[in-house]
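tool_log.txt
---
The assistant was asked to compare two proteins side by side. It first ran the structure predictor on the initial sequence, then on the second. Raw inputs and outputs are pasted verbatim so the downstream comparison step can read them without reformatting.
(1)
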Amino acid sequence: MSIWDWALEAYARPGVPEACLALQDEHGQNTSLLLWAVYAEVKDPEALARAAEATRAWDATALVPLREVRRRLKPPLPPFADAPRLALREEVKGLELAAERLLLETLADLTEGRGGAHALDALEAASAAWGRPAPPNALAELAAALS
């Protein structure tokens, strides 16, 4: 199964979207990096460092700017009509998803096979590599939802 198909399937599980959004919005994590780490079962510090570096670059270049535009287009913005504004927001959302997919596929290309790490170990290692480790309970919540 491709990483994108796996991520879509994983994100559809109960509790995963909420755990991912909390890790992203409350703890400054990149959920694509976290999901990749679980998918690849990786906890190798060198692989995680390379992945975190690539993710930071892509975050700054594409993901964060697209997310900010999408969020800013959500509330009414007179004098702009709601329907076209919301249609544009959906297009930006599609671009944000495409950027997340490209990131996940790029990260998957950085690894060969699976590393054998359990979900929580992979999440903790990826969060540490990101540079701003999330609270253990927030990572444990995502690991449990992914199980």
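(2)
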Amino acid sequence: MKDPLFFADSFFVENPERIETMLFLMSLCLLVYNLGQRELRNSLKRIKVGIKNQLGKLTYFPTLRWVFQCFQGIHLLILNGINQIINLTSERHFILNCLPSSCQKYYLLS
């Protein structure tokens, strides 16, 4: 919650119902985040291959936040009505293959 990427300090909610709703939504988001991280780690453990962390060392337990940061440079290019994903490196492609097919469809892989 202290991380500036969460933007938690920009919420000014005083109504008790809205505070409860905000806490519920944040808890739900953390649950989905944790499930995604667990799925990735279990997949890496199953195939016995790791990915590079921030320091360039191999890890079997990456955080989903790190994976999201790795995917920041990927863009959708629409040219003459044809959708293309650009900057999808082999490492990013490998990470996507470790995730369920429901995640891969956003990168036009399935």
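---
observation on (2): The chain has a mean pLDDT of 87. Strands lie at 51-52, 58-59, 75-79, 82-86.
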